[in-house]
Amino acid sequence: MLEVVLSTDNQDMKEVAHSIKQVSGVPVTHGGGAKAGDFLHYKSNEVDSDADGIIDYSNIEMRVVQESVGTSVIKVVCSYILKSEADAYEPAMEAWVKRYEAASESGVQFTEETPTFPTPLELETGEITLEWSEDTFV
Length: 138
What we know:
The protein is an alpha+beta fold. Helix content is 20%, strand content 36%.
């Protein structure tokens, strides 16, 4: 079990997903069987949000499992979108939809491109070495 602590310098995050990056060695899964590179949401709105709908992403517990005996080197990867960027996108998209609908109703060809959803940013930890050796029973 890895405890992953995320410091965001007081910047709220809207969407956060975690994965592992396999650096070397025996393959490792996370979150109950997800492969390296597969992103999972370790927190959910239904369970983890407060009364205002805010989720504290500052820490999670990530279960990692080596697939066989040996040594693995991994990194934990966090993919996120800042709440401020997501919040700015929503009204921009709503305004675009209104302009599109108005143009459609009036028969005018609408060529304006949709607003671009914020690109997720990524953070990763340093290397984490996991070692599974044969047990010697006494």
